[in-house]
What does this fold into?
Amino acid sequence: MDLSLVIPLYNEEESLPELSTWIEGVINKMGLTYEIIFVDDGSNDNSWEVIEMLNHKNPNIKGVRFRKNYGKSAALNRGFFLAKGEVVITMDADLQDSPDEIPDLYKMINEKGFDIVSGWKKKRYDPISKRWPSKFFNWTVRRISKLPLHDFNCGLKAYRKDVIKSIEIYGEMHRYIPVIAKWGGFRKITEKVVQHKPRKYGSSKFGAERMIKGFLDLISLTFVSKFGKRPMHFFGVIGSLLFIVGLIIAIYLTYAKFFLQGYRMTERPLFYFGLLAMIMGMQVFSAGFVAEMISRNSPRRNEYEIEKTSGITNE
It folds into this structure.
């Protein structure tokens, strides 16, 4: 199959018929074999009934429905699991992403050899209360990930099949897929300016809390990607440094107690700081030791992403 479109949705019954007709018209002109996978993230309107109706009209339109709302990352992860196309394109179901971008995105993956093409909504029709926090968020992610993308959260993206079959997303990590892919060894990542249209039906399903959750997930993702297989390198270094600082303070105060006279060791605030540093150092070091034991006993401890092999056969 040439192309899979994965479209997560939540309460978008009004936009689905128009969106599917638009997509079908664009892809039919391209002459590709395709599938459209709608992932209903626990909608409480008639979205699922609309998806079933569309499936009866066009077998290329498929759907999966969650029992409750799990979030966009879960919906995308399930869609990626089901996708069969060599190129996978994701978009939102609210008609703010234009299906007219599909041909160019497909060519950039299929002909130019990119692993990921991320959409950049250079001109946005969102209120300023969403645009400025988004700018700050994207700036922060660029600095941390070293990926020169302007719009990590754009729902319109294209992927080579190998990418989406090699990653797992959860929580609020859908906006970090390019970052996850980069840290997973995929290097051909670029962006394309795409159209962003005003919302035609309904209202936005995302609130301000997504920014807080997003930053927490970024911290978690950064840690796991760098120290997931070697947690002792993180906790051990910090714990050892704290313990050494506390030990140096304790040695100094002991020396001062016997040779400098004139005060009690426990009367100095430095004593409690040193004691705290030693206790915290031991606790952090112990946490690293436990994490290392868990990591070494994981069934995936020696699993690594292999891009290609030559002259190797499985016997």
